[in-house]
């Protein structure tokens, strides 16, 4: 039930949907003669749109997430490598009869690179379906095709295909991988998503080495996009992650509000 509730909540909290709702309410108020209310709502939409366009709002929100975990110096030996789903559109892949990758495709690239760097490491791909309307198609099934196409031995990989979100990635991933205490496992996911992912894995008692990829900002942030769609896209992903961090912390799915490196006090 929480999976469905989180999807519905994000539909309502999505920045683009919020702006559209405010605009529609403003126009409706003007049509009903509520000039002051309508003008105020439309003005709010215009100001927010202008701010997102000319200010690096999305970068300000993304930067703390992406800088939370630095790229690590990996040890000479690792016992396992786990990559989270989110880099494949399984529904569109099925419809087009070929793998369709998302903007997070760097996750798969890094997984292949590290799998070849550590030929004795155990490998895990964890990702099922995040769709509310079509859960028959699973990311793990498409990932098998992708890895085979680039020459990676899929016999080395355990494919977990039931998880629907980050929390279930950690729970179901641990169930199938059965990591032992003291083992060194590398966790690959997008940099902005790494704090929540690490928090989930730690809450399951699975200590991992964070290996962030798929950056959307430079080390010191990005300049303004001067594009409403570009700026809104950055705000979309950043706000989604901050809300996810808050929800996961309140529900006990992570070990703290803003998970960071082991030595981080916050």
- What is the fourth-level CATH superfamily of the largest domain? HUPs
Query: Using DSSP, what is the number of strands?
Result: 5
Termini, distance in Å? 30 Å
CATH topology of the largest domain: Rossmann fold
Largest sheet: 5 strands, parallel
Name of the CATH class of the largest domain: Alpha Beta
Radius of gyration equals: 20 Å
The averaged pLDDT comes out at 94
Can you give the helix content as a percent range?
Answer: 40-55%
Order of helices and strands: HHHHEHHEHEHEHEH
Name the shape in a single word. elongated
Count of discrete domains: 2
Estimate what percentage of residues fall within beta strands. Answer: 5-15%
Low-pLDDT segments, ≥5 res: none
Could you give the order of strands across the largest sheet? 3-2-1-4-5
SS class: alpha/beta
Record the SSE blueprint.
Elements: H1 2-13, H2 15-31, H3 35-54, H4 57-66, E1 80-84, H5 90-96, H6 106-117, E2 122-126, H7 139-149, E3 157-160, H8 166-177, E4 185-190, H9 194-203, E5 209-213, H10 228-250
Parallel strand pairs: 1-2, 1-4, 2-3, 4-5
Helix pairs in contact: 2-3, 3-10, 4-10, 8-9
Would you give an account of this structure?
The protein has ten helices and five strands. The chain is an alpha/beta fold and 266 residues long. It folds into two domains: 2-54; 73-214, 3-Layer(aba) Sandwich (Rossmann fold). It has a five-stranded parallel sheet, with helices on both faces. Helix 4 packs across helix 10 (228-250). The chain is elongated. The mean pLDDT is 94.
